[in-house]
Amino acid sequence: MGQGEAESPPAAGKKGAEEERDDFGYRLFPDRNKKPQSFLARSLFTFHNKCQLMLRLTLETNPYAQLLLEALKQSGCTVFNDRHFSCENCDGCVSGGFDAATSQIVLCQNNIRQQSHMNRVVTHELIHAFDHCRAHVDWFKNVKHLACSEIRAANLSGDCTLMNEIARFKFGLKGHHQTCVRDRAIRSILAVRKVSKETAEKAVDEVFDACFNDLEPFGRIPHSKADAKRAYRDFQNRDRYTANL
């Protein structure tokens, strides 16, 4: 993520760095390059204020996010609101992203307008953060690693619930959840990496079964907030069970 000043040749160095950043999806998050605004300046922008308020509500009340925050803490990766979340303006086609170089979640304040949307985006990106914490994920060079985390995020974040799919005018019966997870994982890869659709599809297909069945830290596919609450309660009780053995 960091940028260095090239002594020579400056033109080639800058072009190479820009192309690499584009390959890794940074073009979608233009505010990543800018200096942070002052508190006073940020407080004048409605999008930023609304984003911060919705984020706080998600972290304090959403069971998906609460479980993931607890799991990250137990894995040695405590998440701090001011350090690990950033509300920024983004390209119109994305709602959020996980910047592995800084371990920071970007929330697209110009594209997230509803609390339910914020809940899903935060959960999706926290799953990436959890994978980053617990495993040696090569986000930038190994498309299979990226595919695995995108499969898990689509599967466990609520992206593919029945109501969300109906809202997208997508209907299906047998195997529809798996189809949704696969399609959204492919779309996510294509959004942040300059690879062909065939490459993205191949990566997803090769790791799909293993990654779809990796349900940590939920232990189940949470199809609703009620499922997520039960998963959170079970997660909190894991240590109690093992301590009594």
From TrEMBL:
Its EC number is 3.4.24.-. One of its GO terms (cellular component) is mitochondrion. Residues 1-30 are annotated as: Disordered. Residues 15-30 have a biased composition (Basic and acidic residues). It is an enzyme of class 3 (hydrolase). Keywords: Hydrolase, Metal-binding, Metalloprotease, Protease. One of its GO terms (molecular function) is metalloendopeptidase activity. The keyword DNA-binding does not apply. The keyword Membrane does not apply. Transmembrane segments: none annotated. InterPro entries: Peptidase_M76_ATP23 (IPR019165). GO terms for biological process: mitochondrial protein processing; mitochondrial proton-transporting ATP synthase complex assembly. Belongs to the peptidase M76 family. This is Mitochondrial inner membrane protease ATP23. The gene is Atp23.
